[in-house]
Amino acid sequence: MNIGMTTRVALQNLANSKLRTVLAMLGILVGTASVVAMVSSGELATQQALQQFESLGTNLMAVNLYQMEEGSNHSESLTAQQANDIKTANANIELVAPYTSIFSNVVFMGEAVNAGIVGVTASLEKVISINLQEGRFISPLDIDAFFCVIGQNLYNEIKPRILGSVIGKQILLGKDYFTIIGVMQHWPQNSFFNQDVNNSIFVPIKTSTLLSKYAQINSIIMTLEKDADINDVEKSIREYLNVVDAKDKLFFRSAKQLISSMKNQKQILTLFLGLIGSISLLVGGIGVMNIMLVSVVERRREIGIRRAVGARRRDIQKMFLLEAIILALLGGILGVLVGVGTSFIIASFAKWTFTIFLLPPLIGFTVSVLTGVFFGFYPAYQASRLNPIQTLHAE
Amino acid sequence: MSSVIELENLTKDFHLGDNVYHALKGVNLTVEEGELLAVMGSSGAGKSTLMNIIGLLDNPSGGLYKLDGRDVSTLTDDQRSSIRNLKIGFVFQSFFLLPRLTALQNAELPLTYRGTHPKARKERAIKALEKVGMAEFIHRKPMKLSGGQMQRVAIARALTADPSVILADEPTGALDSKIGQDVMDLFKQLNTEDRVTTIIITHDPDVAAQCNRTIHIRDGLVHEETGVNS
Questions:
Q1: Cα A113 to Cα A160: distance, rounded to the nearest angstrom
Q2: Are A276 and A221 part of one and the same domain?
Q3: Do B161 and A309 lie within an 8 Å CB cutoff?
């Protein structure tokens, strides 16, 4: 019996027991859909995580200086000058932006405002790509001026309290009044700069050290030249800061390393999500097997008749196997559609950018068909081994 | 006249646990081409076993079975299937048509396992259906046919294969006597007009009486009954 004919017979048989066909297909459908949806969502999540580098570039590097144990005499912070001079440590360092955060009461127009204060240099604007909505950023000439630049959320909070522009208005930080010189646009979160920019007040770094005696410069964010050797840069910074031995005092994070570790994580994530999806596909496969076994028992008479007119064992096996494969194929196709749809819904709830990845549907589809072959094989084999004499006289 | 079937000292044993049941104890039988043979015998006498072996659904335990001059006593399942497909046409008591297929598709069935071209398949099946008087029902499914019509389709299915022998197991057993006689007339007509070699297994002496020759199976042995039929 040729494939075309066998396929037609298989389709006919499937059509004749619609409810059962739909149920068996549903198992494969859910299985395939979960594989596709999970793996696609994993990909989307990673893509989203990597997107922050698209705006900031992949040449960022963060350096953090940590405190030694308590009781140590060393002061572990840098002076503003030292921090700026790190640039001279290695030719591959492009821009350096040291910063410090301090805590202080913030009052505007007599009302307390919830905001963090960050001491920054003019270079930060370029390093982390800050755009201004109004006014200007901290400039190199501000040095220890009592000027500040405020984040977008903060602006939205204080704007209703005044008439006209906030530029030039005074804001009380601790005991000192600062003049607002600029308003930053909304800044997307980025793990390299661990400050909530949108809720922050930026002041010149020198000023911040005057503001609080606890202000310490122990974080620097910098941009490197395009093809900088990260290990080399790290080494020269260690040497420059003279902390070569105390490895645990100085921490580096570079975008390149972060991306590669994210890609590793993505692989693990994909593997696990795929595994979870595969379990449902396994369940679907067992469903196919179950239904095929029932079908074999129900159609013993048919098997007997076909054998009597000359069907060989492999003809019978082919017939049942093809039915299982068609079931899996239909389930697989619908499953891919549902899976992609599900990942679209997940993406829109999580506000991720949606992209259709080719690989997860392809994998889901292939695996579902293989499931059909695998779980259809045993029932088909069993059907082919039935004794024609007994099947003919089966009721 | 050449022999289609030659059985020499054919035996069949069934092993039931430690016991051996001798279903056939040395059957000798020759069926000539163009014969219309009736096989009679009470149930349990070994009729079905003999038919299963002749129909190549089973191998004998001993002895010789020659079909069209070829020894087919010991064959693999695949070989039996192929020879069955080419040389044996089955007609069963309860018709055994595939309910989901039309009369035409049912009649085509043996040819689908031969790789016959679909067009040739259809032509041959239609011809066979015409022969049994079912030309106007070729697109009906078995459910829409009467018992006699279903048996005619089953006979057409056997004819399509153009077999060396048609094995009919109680072909009139499920039909009332008038319809049964119509089916018998069809067998006789095919036998006289087209010299189709036919073996009919039956309980009914009236059916046996219409055949050229009758054999009885008793206790695993064949007893020839000669001179009864004309």
A1: 13
A2: no
A3: yes
